[in-house]
């Protein structure tokens, strides 16, 4: 016997007001690029009564400069970000991460807003945003609130988003032009691959010392994380070859990976440790 057809409505709001009104419907879910949501829908993992399609909502699209930083509309397709001059010039780590996300077709539809709300531990878009101390701006009938991306993603599939709320934009503060960045994703192949583990670093070296450093890792904890204990231990130290074994050991113990079909916990821990060591060695030798 065939299952009864699912009763599901669809709206495509053209204003923020219409979006807020649609979100008041019980069981409503936002649909943006649909590259995560449609997969879950077809697998029967979600069953919204109303799909609220924000992919054409101009107010949530685009990239703008503000206070020296960059503000990205949550519904801006990843391809548009990759084609944006300001993003290419000032956010090379975001570019590097998005270039490894899915495929051209996926990036033509997928958005940073969707990537963050989907809250995968492997979310490629999250890593550069963690490194840049980016914030999400969340809007609802009750007003607007801001929070660090680091706090926004809680656990697999879970964020701080409340009912009736949506991600309006992502704010990336001004970038120190002297900062040095690295990012690497380890997967089974170069395209259409979910990270087995990924690591990023952004740091500022002043007179041979680490003035500040941020490290982030994906697919090695219940959410994309900053490697705070490593950052704290390295800050202020002279960057030389002696520091690297310590950084490697600290990085290995700062993550809590699991075994799954893509890789073992042990392998993932090794990848994080090796990448942190390799990034620091490269800068040390430069
Ligand atoms: C074949 C394939 C390969 C992929 N490869 C990768 C990969 O390599 N790396 C990776 O990180 N991801 C990958 N993904 C996942 C996906 O493409 C990304 O997470 C994408 O950025 C999601 O954006 P979207 O606009 O399509 O989200 P949608 O599917 O539209 O939405 C995802 C979730 O976010 C919610 N949502 C979307 N926008 C908002 C908003 N503004 N406010 C509130 N809630 C919102 C939706 O309700 C839903 O819960 C892949 C997916 C597929 C199908």
N- to C-terminal separation? 67 Å
The percentage of residues in β strands lies in 25-35%
Shape: globular
Bound molecules: flavin-adenine dinucleotide
Strand order of the largest sheet: 4-5-10-6-7
Classify the secondary structure makeup into a structural class. alpha+beta
Helical content band: 25-40%
Q: For the CA atoms, what is the radius of gyration?
A: 20 Å
How many DSSP E strands? Answer: 14
The biggest beta sheet is recorded as: 5 strands, antiparallel
CATH topology of the largest domain: Uridine Diphospho-n-acetylenolpyruvylglucosamine Reductase, domain 3
List the helices and strands and how they pair.
Blueprint (H helix, E strand, L loop, with lengths): L8 E3 L4 H7 L5 E4 L5 H6 L7 E4 L9 E4 L2 E5 L4 H6 L1 H6 L1 H8 L4 H6 L2 H7 L7 H6 L3 E6 L2 E6 H4 E3 L2 E2 L6 E7 L7 E7 L10 E10 L2 E10 L6 E2 L1 H7 L8 H11 L11 H21 L1
Parallel strand pairs: 1-3, 2-3
Antiparallel strand pairs: 4-5, 5-10, 6-7, 6-10, 8-9, 11-12, 12-13, 13-14
Helix pairs in contact: 10-11, 11-12
Bound molecules: flavin-adenine dinucleotide.
The site of flavin-adenine dinucleotide (FAD) has 33 residues, from β2, α2, α6, α7 and β10.
């Amino acid at each position: 016997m065939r299952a009864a057809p699912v009763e599901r409505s669809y709206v495509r709001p053209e204003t923020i007001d219409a979006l807020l009104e649609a979100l008041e419907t019980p069981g409503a879910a936002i649909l943006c690029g649909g590259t995560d949501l449609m997969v879950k829908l077809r697998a029967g993992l979600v069953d919204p009564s109303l799909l609220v399609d924000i992919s054409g909502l101009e107010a949530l699209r685009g990239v703008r400069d503000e206070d020296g930083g960059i503000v990205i509309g949550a519904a801006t397709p990843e391809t548009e970000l990759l084609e944006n001059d300001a993003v290419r010039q000032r956010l090379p780590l975001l570019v590097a991460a998005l270039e490894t996300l899915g495929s051209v077709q996926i990036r033509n539809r997928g958005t940073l807003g969707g990537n963050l709300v989907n809250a995968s531990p492997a979310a490629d878009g999250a890593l550069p945003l963690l490194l840049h101390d980016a914030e999400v701006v969340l809007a609802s009938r009750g007003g607007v609130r801001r929070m660090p991306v680091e706090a926004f993603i809680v656990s697999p599939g879970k964020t701080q988003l409340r009912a009736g709320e949506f991600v309006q934009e992502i704010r990336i503060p001004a970038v120190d032009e002297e900062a040095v960045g690295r990012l690497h994703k380890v997967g089974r192949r170069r395209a259409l691959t979910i990270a087995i583990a990924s690591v990023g670093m952004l740091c500022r070296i002043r007179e041979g010392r680490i003035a500040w450093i941020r490290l982030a890792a994906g697919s090695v904890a219940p959410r994309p994380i900053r490697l705070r204990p490593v950052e704290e231990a390295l800050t202020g130290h002279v960057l030389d070859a002696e520091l690297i074994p310590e950084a490697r050991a600290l990085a290995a113990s700062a993550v809590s990976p699991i075994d799954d079909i893509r890789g073992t916990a042990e392998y993932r821990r090794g990848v994080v440790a090796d990448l942190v060591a390799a990034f620091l060695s490269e800068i040390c030798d430069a």
